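input
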Amino acid sequence: MADLDEMIHEDALPGNESELEPKPEWQPRYPGSGRLEGKVALITGGDSGIGRAVAALFAREGANVAIVYLVEDKDAQETRRIIEAEGRDALLCKGDIGSAQMCEDAVSKVIEKFGRLDILVNNAGEQHPDENIEDISEEQLRRTFQTNIFGMFFMTQAARPHLQSGAAIINCTSVTMYQGSKELLDYSSTKGAITAFTRSLSENLVDKGIRVNAVAPGPIWTPLNPFGGATKDKLAHFGESTPMGRPGQPNEVAPAFLFLACEDSSYMSGQVLHPNGGTIVGS
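output
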């Protein structure tokens, strides 16, 4: 995978959580209750940020967890340690979800190791701030869509043959889908596509007993923004515009993913949850 590390050069993305100060809060806030006992989950972007917090919480609730990550080996190994510290098995899959073949390979590794797949969390994403639409290069536009929406299609296509009735798919969209973002034109556009994908995929799979929902976080303190995903000015006031006046932490978002993954949400599909600091948005 050395070539992959060399290929990822734009900004500092996806960024190392191990180098971020202050550290994001990923720790589950309460004891587990076995809500995912015996389940297997695959989480893209699971090495850091929201993905790490979801992996930790899923493991605490009884799931074995596979994470897909791009190049951040140190973060991925720490997430493995976190999962195993909860007494669950972990699997690391390194690669670019913008490749359909990589997604096929990752799912094959999950099935080979665990023999099943019950929960798919499409969390990985990237963003690049630009003040003017003319500043968005064709390369950046293609790359953002390749990761954020093409990768979600590819991973879901790879996982679908292994998802049985009772399985759950949870996609990560964003508050920017509902509010827009003047500096994240391409990113917010992909998040709009993800919300439409979630609703359409739900209609496509609901009669198969597979539920599809999404989570739309607001400003959350993860490596995504500090390592090139936001301007310095935005970082200086990150999260202050929310009604709560602060950014959220990954462990304040992870419970929304858990709720949608377990039987607590058995009568929900095609829906979006909004852990965003109190911002009122249309559903």
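quick obs: Residues 226 and 232 are 8 Å apart (CA to CA).
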